[in-house]
Design brief:
This protein is α+β, with helices and mostly antiparallel strands. It contains 17 helices and 4 strands.
Length: 438
């Protein structure tokens, strides 16, 4: 793949991340107002700093990252978002080193570029949203697992789950990988599994219990018939009556908190909701079923008047969007699932399975197939940004599967170059800042 390598030979992962960060810093205060779910998380972060529990349908750590930014840089757009942007950079760096286990340096860099310039990944690493810190810790857990560092694997996965509960799918992926790559059961293997489980549970449960005890999480209120006794100054009872009062119901432990989280999210069903085709996970890769999720759109209406030789010739209304954050798919990476998945299965059938291929295929199975199952069985709403957990698998799997094929080098080079060019074009097309409209 000499020509493709020459095109990017002067760029290292550090330079790629610096370019990526520079673009983020251009956008970090655009707008200086909450975007999409930032409306919930900025308030939750403020409450966290005040010692008040809120937004308890998610674990607390995801909001704590934004609160940390507020504490250091102030309650403004830069403060909300800068920690998430840094997590995005760390995610790319960690993912690159994970990819280096299976790919040459330039191909691993290409995989990082596929991920970094995926529009959904870029958007969610630009805003104060929960997915990117969770994804960083999960990828770090995969890296530690492959290095056989069990305790660090468990701690990283625990921090991922504490950042957002959807990391349970990434934990499922890790379990699948362990089952597939473990040749035989042994006493030492059982001991390591128990150690992993214990450290993971402690990493999740201890901080959650401290949070529950310190903040006093209230899920609802109930009416209680309370006795009211009126006592005279001499100690005699004047009257006794009853009244109904609202009493908060508190979460007392980690089990109750997780029950609340699961109950809340299981209630997000399609029945009676205003959902479109994009809320069904099998539609995410069908061009006719695509619809943008508008996160934030600043609209400017221009009245353009035409004159010919100084005489009025007509006018028209033009709407432009100088700032336009959208939860839109980056088509090349998302649609690569139609290539990566069958190629992975083909290579497995040809007995060319290796650790990288197993990781790619199991990552897709562990993070995407459960979404289909929950949608079919439980009628659960599935938002397109849930697919963000699967994107690294495709970014890794695309160059990996192509490089493993027994075809001419030029063919491999053309395919990967086409996907890279398509990725850049798609990124520019959906770039959230329209400088021509300013």
């Amino acid at each position: 793949m000499s020509q493709l390598s020459k095109a990017i030979t002067s760029i290292t992962i550090r330079e790629l991340i610096l370019i990526w960060l520079a673009i983020h810093l251009l956008l970090i205060t655009q707008p200086n107002a909450p975007v999409f779910d930032e409306a919930y998380y900025t308030q939750a972060a403020r409450d966290l700093l005040k010692g008040v529990a809120s937004n308890i349908e998610h674990p607390f750590l995801g909001k704590a990252w934004g609160a940390l930014g507020m504490l250091i840089f102030g309650d403004n757009a830069f403060g909300w978002r800068i920690i998430i942007v840094l997590f995005g950079a760390l995610t790319l760096y960690t993912f690159y080193h994970l990819a280096r286990r299976y790919l040459p340096e330039r191909m691993a860099l290409l995989a990082a570029a596929y991920l970094g310039f995926d529009h959904l990944f870029f958007t969610h690493s630009s805003l104060f949203l929960l997915e990117i810190p969770a994804l960083f810790f999960a990828i770090l857990a995969f890296k530690y697992y492959l290095e056989r560092r069990i305790v660090l694997t468990a701690i990283s996965m625990g921090l991922s789950i504490l950042s957002k509960e959807t990391s349970l799918f990434l934990l499922f992926t890790l379990i699948l990988l362990h089952l597939v790559t473990t040749r035989r059961l042994s006493t030492q293997g059982v001991f390591k599994a128990l150690k992993f489980t214990g450290v993971l549970l402690a990493t999740v449960a201890i901080p959650m219990q401290i949070y529950i005890s310190a903040y006093g999480l209230s899920t609802s209120e109930r009416l209680v018939n309370q006795v009211v006794v009126v006592v005279a100054p001499d100690g005699s009872v004047i009257s006794t009556t009853t009244t109904w009062v609202k009493v908060p119901e508190y979460i007392k432990n980690v089990f109750e908190h997780w029950r609340y989280i699961f109950t809340y999210h299981s209630g997000l069903t399609i029945s009676g909701s205003n959902v479109g085709p994009e809320n069904y996970p099998w539609n995410w890769f069908i061009p006719t079923q695509q619809r943008e999720m508008i996160y934030y759109r600043a609209e400017v209406v221009k009245n353009i008047t035409y004159y010919t030789d100084g005489v009025y010739a007509g006018s028209r209304i033009e709407r432009v969007y100088p700032i336009n954050w959208r939860g839109v798919t980056n088509l090349p990476l998302w649609y690569s699932i139609w290539l990566v998945t069958p190629l992975s299965i083909y290579l497995v059938a040809r007995k060319r399975l290796n650790e990288g291929l197993a990781l790619t295929l199991l990552w897709i199975i562990g993070t995407y197939l459960p979404l289909i199952g929950m949608s079919l069985v439980f009628n659960r709403i599935e938002y397109p940004f849930y697919f963000i957990n699967t994107l690294p698998a495709l970014a890794l799997g695309l160059p990996l599967t192509i490089s493993m094929l027994n075809v001419d080098k030029l063919v491999k080079e053309v395919v990967l170059a086409a996907f890279f060019g398509w990725t850049v074009a798609s990124f520019l097309l959906y770039f959230p800042l329209n400088v021509w409209a300013l």
